[in-house]
Automatic annotation (TrEMBL):
<dbReference type="Pfam" id="PF01343">
    <property type="entry name" value="Peptidase_S49"/>
</dbReference>
<dbReference type="InterPro" id="IPR047272">
    <property type="entry name" value="S49_SppA_C"/>
</dbReference>
<feature type="signal peptide">
    <location>
        <begin position="1"/>
        <end position="21"/>
    </location>
</feature>
<keyword id="KW-0732">Signal</keyword>
<keyword id="KW-0645">Protease</keyword>
<feature type="active site" description="Proton donor/acceptor">
    <location>
        <position position="186"/>
    </location>
</feature>
<dbReference type="InterPro" id="IPR029045">
    <property type="entry name" value="ClpP/crotonase-like_dom_sf"/>
</dbReference>
<keyword id="KW-0378">Hydrolase</keyword>
<feature type="active site" description="Nucleophile">
    <location>
        <position position="400"/>
    </location>
</feature>
<dbReference type="InterPro" id="IPR047217">
    <property type="entry name" value="S49_SppA_67K_type_N"/>
</dbReference>
<dbReference type="InterPro" id="IPR002142">
    <property type="entry name" value="Peptidase_S49"/>
</dbReference>
<comment type="similarity">
    <text>Belongs to the peptidase S49 family.</text>
</comment>
<feature type="domain" description="Peptidase S49">
    <location>
        <begin position="118"/>
        <end position="267"/>
    </location>
</feature>
<feature type="domain" description="Peptidase S49">
    <location>
        <begin position="386"/>
        <end position="539"/>
    </location>
</feature>
<dbReference type="GO" id="GO:0016020">
    <property type="term" value="C:membrane"/>
</dbReference>
<dbReference type="InterPro" id="IPR004634">
    <property type="entry name" value="Pept_S49_pIV"/>
</dbReference>
<keyword id="KW-0720">Serine protease</keyword>
Length: 612
């Protein structure tokens, strides 16, 4: 996060107190006298689990081993560590170190739910950050103690949607976007055609912002800090805040440095000291035995195949990223290496779960802005064909194609802040013929067939090609709305096609709005969706069951073949333009489109809108 506070550059080193973690906190053995001393020490010392939360906390399944460092962590692994600490009788509290948390409101709500469950055990939760960004602070409001150093602060300034338009830029570059769309609200292509926001797009963004501002921003601060809604809105309008000002208006509790934090936690816990269990529950790096090349190769090829248990399971299938035909993977490394949901991979995962006699139901975890219309339809078909119950759980985003694959499920769960809907279709290609001519290139064409230029990037669509493609786009839209209506009707919602179309047209909704309009069935977390899947399978929703995560993560060698393997010291076998200053926004815009570049017809949300 870019700091809004002054930055002080100091020459030389910095000496301070270091809080050390106990690598082996649960010591065994020793004399009775030593054990008595240990018991006495435990009475005076509270053990606090430390978990660091930063970045967007991706949801894609990860390999068990990382060849050159500790295993990577995804969102579920972070939640599991919080749950583990809640059940650990030796743990009295949870220390959340928050650093540039950029999750969406869907994941943020799941984290808040996990913290609430932790506190329900009678344990305390503590938040510390050098500087609270907005998402980090909203999470911190559920904690028993919020602290920041004197040079820190809180960035609580409200919501902002920025929509960037590229029409004039494309003209300067001698480029042109040729576009077909269905739906007044299908704003994914608007930045390429106009230089200002349409009334329809402004309406949907305003509606979502109003809903999120009150429910996802104001309400958590009101509840957590015991302030009135009017006071919170006043605080937001006067932000950001230094640590001192944040404390004076009631946003944080203490101004202390991290080395002082254990004493502050101990005071809340009523003990003499607080012992921090650093990186509690985090998997450790596997030691490499370079003298054994076979062991090294085995590790590079993936973890050892464990014998599958015969216990009943719920399969959780992750559909994360832009939707494309073929296999899932890390697409377009040049533009940020965004995740991509491949129809071939998801279909195989569903069939694997269906054939596994121990799997009783399936949960499809969706975090996708959409993509290929064809790939979305292929996955939808496999979902409705599956003979086992399939439930959808929406994460931060499940829009357009993300909604398409969800609507085939028997029940849909979404978070209140999930971005969903966007039931609409568009076709687009970028025409570079004028740029080629400007550069001295000349293209001659010999053709047999009237509409052979539908995929040509050199020339815009002819009238005949445009007519044929328009019919295709309209047909896909009719297919989308019809199947959405059928899916909602099967779920017990009164949703004839005419009513569904009033909610479609490419319009985007929050999860809360989608629930009110009947586009989703329940507001809830992934755990709620898993409980719902158990119920559909005739199983007690409270029964503990093993989870089968699909699709399986790629091994190091598989990633190497895909050009996505990470090397030590942060090096990588790919170039990432999203890390170049000034190009972050362009990379975010380009990545989903490039992931589906071979598909002219797309079902994709207006991903260019970014709420800050």
């Amino acid at each position: 996060m870019k700091r809004w506070l002054l930055t002080l550059a100091l020459a030389g080193g910095f000496a301070g107190t270091t809080i050390l973690a106990d690598d082996n906190p649960f010591k065994k053995g020793g004399t009775a006298k030593a054990e008595a001393k240990e018991d006495k020490k435990d009475v005076d010392t509270a053990r606090v689990a430390h978990i660091k939360l930063s970045g967007d906390l991706g949801e894609s399944p990860l390999p068990a081993e990382n060849l050159f460092g500790p295993p990577e962590e995804n969102f579920k692994m972070k939640l599991d560590r919080i749950r583990k600490a809640a059940k650990d009788e030796k743990i009295s509290g949870l220390f959340l170190q928050l650093d540039d948390l950029t999750v969406g409101y869907g994941k943020l709500n799941e984290l808040r739910r996990a913290i609430a469950d932790f506190k329900a055990t009678g344990k305390k939760v503590f938040a510390y950050s050098e500087e609270y960004g907005q998402k980090a602070y909203l999470l911190a409001t559920d904690c028993d103690l919020i602290a920041s150093p004197e040079g820190g602060g809180v960035i609580l300034v409200g919501l902002r949607a920025e929509v960037t338009f590229y029409k004039n830029t494309l003209e300067l570059l001698k480029l042109k976007a040729d576009v077909l769309k269905v739906g007044d609200y299908k704003a994914a292509v608007e930045p390429f055609l106009a230089d200002k926001m349409s009334d329809a797009n402004r309406e949907q963004i305003t509606s979502m912002m109003d809903d999120n501002f009150q429910s996802e921003l104001v309400a958590p601060v009101v509840k957590g800090r015991k302030l009135s809604a009017e006071k919170v809105k006043e605080i937001i309008d006067n932000g950001p805040y230094t640590a001192a000002k944040a404390k004076s208006v009631g946003l944080i509790d203490q101004i202390i440095y991290e080395d002082e934090f254990p004493d502050a936690m101990a005071k809340v816990l009523g003990t003499k000291t607080a012992k921090i269990e650093r990186n509690y529950g985090k998997p450790k790096a596997q030691k490499l035995d370079f003298s054994n090349p076979f062991a090294l190769l085995e590790m590079m090829g993936g973890s050892k195949t464990e014998k599958e248990s015969k216990d009943p399971k719920i399969a959780v299938i992750y559909a994360v990223g832009a939707i494309q035909s073929g296999k899932s993977g890390n697409s377009n490394p040049l533009f940020g290496g965004s995740d991509a949901v491949g129809s071939e991979t998801i279909v195989a995962a569903i069939r694997q779960a269906e054939k596994d006699d121990t799997v009783k139901a399936i949960v499809l975890r969706v975090d996708s802005p959409g993509g290929s219309a064809l790939a979305s339809d292929v996955m939808w078909r496999e979902i409705i064909r599956c003979k086992k119950p399939v439930v959808a759980s929406m994460g931060d985003v499940a829009a357009s194609g993300g909604y398409y694959i969800s609507m085939g499920c028997k029940k849909i769960y979404a978070e209140p802040g999930t971005v969903t809907g966007s039931i609409g279709v568009f076709g687009m290609k970028l025409v570079i013929g004028e740029l080629e001519a400007w550069g001295g290139m000349k293209t001659e064409v010999i053709t047999r067939g009237k509409n052979t230029g539908v995929l040509s990037s050199t020339f815009p669509w002819s009238d005949s090609e445009r007519k044929a493609l328009t019919e295709t786009v309209e047909a896909v839209y009719e297919q989308f709305t019809r199947k959405a209506s059928e899916g909602r009707t099967k779920a017990g919602v009164d949703m004839p096609v005419e009513k569904l179309k009033k909610l479609a047209g490419g319009r985007v909704w929050t999860g809360r709005q989608a629930k009110e309009n009947g586009l989703v069935d329940e507001l809830g977390t992934l755990d709620d969706a898993i409980a719902g899947a158990k119920t559909l399978a005739g199983i007690d929703p409270k029964k503990d069951m093993e989870l089968l995560t699909l699709p399986k993560a790629q091994s190091f060698i598989e990633k190497l073949m895909d050009g996505d393997a990470k090397l030590p010291f942060g090096a990588s076998l790919k170039v990432d333009l999203s890390q170049v200053p000034g190009l972050e926004k362009a990379a975010k815009i380009a990545a989903p489109l490039l992931a589906t570049q071979k598909d002219v017809i797309k079902v994709m949300m207006p991903f260019h809108v970014e709420f800050k």
